[in-house]
């Protein structure tokens, strides 16, 4: 993906100057791209400042080291009114058996810490304690950009899509529904999709599977 983005950037900077680039925190390599073309990189993850500050404080203070139970409540040092457990941070815990995940997390941390600013989908008055705590000692500094929700004019009531009607029906019947999705960046082969589709069908479970439009015909 990086070469394609840089190709677009190359064409863009030849037409007009670029002031900065805002990119998803998971795309750590965008910092390299911004540096290459000489403009600042701002990182955005979509999560609120509470989560960022709590996560940083937990690992900074090594609160999870030596904890035997995944459900043990641990009082935070920097925010003593908050209690956490190991289960709250499983996805971020070191895992020597998954080198790919460790690499991604490490690259994300390095990229974020070296970015020009950290954009948060919040406002200062809502998360003042956590924004101020972060900005007093961490880098990059946080910029709150208010809730990013576009206002829409009222629309005429429309008929619900068939899948919403199906979900409503299952809710009324008291049936659970399995939600299946692979994320926007996962590359799942046609063979894998076929096997997953067969497994879902044979399980007899109610499921809703989200796929890219071009992949729908694969499992028909």
UniProtKB/TrEMBL annotation:
Gene3D superfamilies: Glycogen Phosphorylase B. GO terms for molecular function: UDP-glucosyltransferase activity. InterPro entries: Tudor. Residues 142-203 form the Tudor domain. Keywords: Glycosyltransferase, Transferase. Belongs to the UDP-glycosyltransferase family. This is Tudor domain-containing protein.
